[in-house]
Write a structure and sequence with these properties.
The protein is of the alpha/beta class. About 40% of the residues lie in helices and about 10% in strands. Helix 6 links the parallel strand 5 and strand 6. The chain binds pyridoxal-5'-phosphate.
């Protein structure tokens, strides 16, 4: 099976698998236990925290291990709802992942505002700069890279605007971590990540919290993670996550294969278009509007039969009838959004794999037409 759905989840990196197996056997204790078996697990966890902090360029003490980015985002808005002034708003981009958008809506049903994006899928900086001059929010959230379009957001400029206006900034960096250098991430107040998006195991992630700040924990119970997240730490999961990330940051890919594929796709499938083609995008993802209207699930099923796994967009939104909120926010019609297919490669995807994907698309189209 040719796998082009790494933005949904990426297979375990061999280094992560090895780290997970080693940790499961070597660190059998509970990091909170006072005996040496527990202390060894605790020391391994601290070492992993230090390594992650070095990659993100932040203080290790500001990192909390979680079950993934969904928990991390929920923690941010849970904390905001308990600490911000009663009339404070939260602002988030109109293209955030549902774990951010739904948490914001849940905790701030009447006090959240969507920051518009351009047709090219970029947060509208002009709108933001103007709006902030009037009255700013108590928290502002913009993702680093969009999971559907792959567009790299101008988070450094947004962070600078937040600093000017004294607003805490939350960056969902799930689709950037391991794909782009982590420059500047450690400067954000809140940053979330999920291990399975870069070759770590599923069900483990992290949240970078404001420097030395206390947070209102989402999960209550024991005093793990300095009282910021209760529950016995997933030591093997964390060690595997950090091993995967260390492997990823050593070798970053370029956009060459993706752009070559895009050129060929537009030639081979007249009527297809690439979403956000003019914007800076990560090397691994292409969101295309296919030529035939209203049949993207047929494309996915057909390609699956031909041995290629792709998706119609965000895994969390698939199965829903409504058009993608991301494409809607970018100004695409429901009919256009219904033609969207996402191809997301992995770190080991070769030029040959991209060629096979193109050949499968051409064949799928031929078969669908003759049917
Ligand atoms: N944020 C983004 C941008 C994502 O792509 C995802 C997963 O699709 C998440 C958050 C949520 O990650 P998880 O499901 O691992 O909690």
């Amino acid at each position: 099976m040719l796998y082009f759905d790494h933005n949904a989840t990426s297979p375990l990196h061999p280094a992560a698998r090895q780290a997970w197996l080693d940790a499961t056997e070597r660190f059998i204790g509970n990091p909170s236990s006072l005996h040496r078996v527990g202390a060894r697990a605790d020391a391994a966890l601290s070492e992993a925290r230090e390594k992650l902090a070095r990659i993100l360029r932040c203080d290790a003490l500001d990192l909390v291990f979680t079950s993934g980015a969904t928990e991390s985002a929920n923690t941010v808005f849970h904390h905001a709802a308990r600490t911000l002034a009663p009339d404070a708003e939260v602002w988030l981009s109109a293209i955030e992942h549902p774990c951010v958008a739904e948490s914001a809506r849940h905790h701030f049903p009447k006090r959240h505002r969507l920051i518009p994006v351009t047709r090219d899928g970029l947060v509208d900086l002009n709108w933001l700069a103007k709006a902030l001059k009037r009255k700013g929010p108590g928290l502002l959230a913009v993702m680093a890279v969009n999971n559907e379009t792959g567009v790299i957001q101008p988070t450094r400029n947004i962070l600078a605007l937040c600093r000017t206006h004294g607003i805490p900034f939350f960056c969902d960096a799930v689709q950037a971590i391991g794909k782009l250098p982590a420059v500047g991430l450690g400067d954000c107040d809140w940053v979330s990540g999920s291990a399975h998006k870069f070759g770590g195991p599923r069900g483990v992630g992290f949240l970078k919290c404001p420097a030395k700040g206390r947070i209102a924990p989402l999960l209550r119970g024991g005093m793990q993670e300095e009282g910021r997240r209760a529950g016995t730490e997933n030591v093997p999961g964390v060690l595997a996550m950090v091993a995967a990330l260390e492997a990823r940051v050593q070798a970053m890919n370029t956009t060459a294969l993706r752009t070559g594929f895009e050129r060929q796709l537009l030639k081979s499938l007249p009527g297809a278009t690439i979403v956000a083609v003019k914007s800076p995008r990560v090397w691994n993802a292409v969101l295309a509007l296919m030529p035939e209207a209203d049949c993207r699930t047929r494309w996915v099923v057909k390609l699956d039969k031909l041995g290629v796994a792709v998706s119609t967009g965000s895994a969390c939104a698939s199965g829903k009838e409504e058009p993608s909120p991301v494409l809607t926010a970018m100004g695409y019609s429901a009919a256009e959004a219904a033609r969207a297919l996402r191809f997301s490669a992995g770190w080991e995807t070769t030029a040959g794999d991209w060629e096979k994907l193109l050949a499968a698309l051409v064949q799928a189209r031929r078969e669908m037409r003759s049917a």
